[in-house]
Amino acid sequence: MGEATSRAGLYPRGFSQSVTWRWDLIPARELINLNYGRALKADIRASGTVPVYGTNGQCGWHDQSLANGPGLIIGRKGQGPLGVEWCESGFWVIDTAYFVTTLRPDLNLQYLYHLIKYIGLNHLKDGTSNPTLSRDTFGAQLFPVPPPFEQEAIARILGALDDKIALNRRMNATLETMARALFQSWFVDFDPVRAKLDGRPPAGLDSDIAALFPSRFQESPIGPVPQGWEVKPLPEVIDVNPSRTLKNGTVAPYLDMKNMPTEGHAVKDVVPRIFGSGMRFQNGDTLLARITPCLENGKTAFVDFLKDGQTGWGSTEYIVLAPRPPITPEFCYYLARSDAFRLFAIQNMTGTSGRQRVPSDCFSQFELAVPSAEVAERFGLITRPWMSKIHANIEESRTLAALRDTLLPRLLTGELRVNTATQAVEKSL
Fold it and tell me: pLDDT for 90-117, tens place per residue?
C-alpha cells in the first residue's frame, strides 16, 4: 500500500494494487453517512425550481427541498448505472437514492463527489432482480483522504473543468433551441409570411431577409403554404438512403449507433473498420435512427466529421438523408429534428413492440413545403455558424473531460501535486 495506511475494506476500483498511496485509505462508514430519500410521486410534485433526484440523476422539479445545498446525491437501486450527482442549491431526493452528509469536519463534500464518481457504485450493488447499494456494502469501500487543503485544491481543479464542460453544454442547448425555433418559425408556422400578410414587419428579421418571403399564401394538399413554394414528396428533394460507393473490404470510418447524439449534432467516436455491409454516408448528410427507442430519444447526427470526399458507413438502423438543391444540409438536419418529422416517422413504424422500425419508403408519403432557394440558403447561412460552434464546444468538452480523467486518479493517489495539475488546467481553459 506504499506510504499510506488502510483499514480493512474494499480496495478502490480503478486503481492498481501496486499504487503507492500518499494518503490514508479509510472505509466510507467512518467518513460519511448515506441518508435515505423520501418518496415523492410525480403526480403530487408542485411546480417549482427545486431539482428532484432519483437513482439515475435528476428526474423532475418540486417547490420544496428535502436537503440544503450544496449536496451530493448517489443512486441506491436499479439495473442501470447509479447516478453520482452534485447540486449547488437545495434539492429533493426520492426513495431510490441517498444524499450524503459527512461525519468528519475535515472532509470536503465536493472532493468526495469527484472521488465517488471516479471509483463508481455499480460494483457495490447487491441482488439481481432489483440490485441495491446497501449502506453496509458502501461503508466497506475504502477512500483516500488527503489533508483538507489538498481536498479543496483537487475539488477546485476538477470543478473548473466540470464548470467549463457544463457551460459548453448550456451554450449548445441554447444554440440548438435557437436553430430549431428558427426552422419552426420559417418552415412550419410561416411566421414571416403571416406577418407580411397582416401588414407587419416580420419580427427579428432584417429587411433583406424579410424581402425573401412572399406576402401571401396559396392553397396546397397540406394546407396554406407561402406563395411560390412547391409541395413535394420528401424523396423528390431529399435522397433517402442514397447510393454511395464503398467496396467490400475497404477500411472506412464507422459510426456505431451508441455514439449517435441525442443533444446537439456532433457524434462521439468514429473508428476505422472494414466495410462489409451497412448504410453509407458523406459530409452534409443527416443520419436518423429508425429503431425504437433511439428515434424516440431524438438520435440524429449531422455528418461533418469525414475528410473531403470520404465515405463513412454504419448500422442498417440508420436512415441516411442527403439533401438536393434547393434544400441545404442545415435545412435537412433541422427538418429531421423537427417534431412533425419525428412524429411522422414514429407513426409509420412497423414491426413488433419494442423493436419497431421506420421503413425508409414511408417518406414518399411525407409532403414538404419546399422553400425558395434564397430562403433555404439564408437559413443555412444563419444556422451554419451555430452548428459549427456546437461541434467545437463538444470537441472542447471531450478534450477537457479527457484531461480531467487523466488528472483525477493521479491527484487521488497523490502522485500528481496540485500545483502541476493547476498549470495543466489553466493552459486548457
Answer: 999 999 999 999 999 999 999 999 999 9
CB atoms within 10 A of CB 240: 17
pLDDT score, position 76: 95
In this structure, are 163 and 237 located in the same domain?
A: no
Is residue 168 included in any domain, yes or no? yes
- Please give the model's pTM, rounded to 2 decimal places: 0.84
* Residue count (the chain): 429
Cis peptide, bond prior to residue 325, ω within 30 of zero: no
Q: How far apart are CA 124 and CA 84, in angstroms?
A: 14
| Closest to 276 measured CA to CA, from 298, 293, 252, 297 | 252
Q: Which cell goes with 234?
A: 420528401
The pLDDT of residue 259 is above 70? yes
Cell numbers linked to 202: 416580420
- Start-to-end Cα distance in the chain: 35
Tell whether 206 is covered by a domain.
Answer: no
**Contacts with 125 (C-beta within 8 Å, 6 or more apart), sequence order:** 77, 82, 131, 132, 133, 137
Written as one letter, the residue type at 197 is L
C-alpha cell at 103: 461525519
b (16+ CB within 10 A) / e for 371-407? bbeebbbbbbeebeebbeebbebbeebeebeebbeeb
- How many domains is the chain built from? 3
- C-alpha cell of 257? 449507433
pLDDT of residue 121: 92
Q: Which residues constitute the domain of residue 68?
A: 1-145
- What pLDDT score was predicted for residue 316? 85
CATH code for the domain of 268: 3.90.220.20
Q: Which residues of 319-355 are buried (b: 16+ CB within 10 A; e: fewer)?
A: bbbbbeebbbbbbbbbbbbbeebbebbeebbeeeeee
* Contact residues for 416 (Cβ-Cβ < 8 A; gap 6+): 407, 410
Task: Please report, for residues 65, 118, 143, 166, 251, the alpha-carbon distance to residue 109 in angstroms, rounded to integers and kept in the order given.
Answer: 19, 14, 13, 19, 48
Apex 243 CA angle, 239 and 246, nearest 5: 145
Measured in degrees and rounded to the nearest 5, phi and psi for residue 316 equal: -75, 0
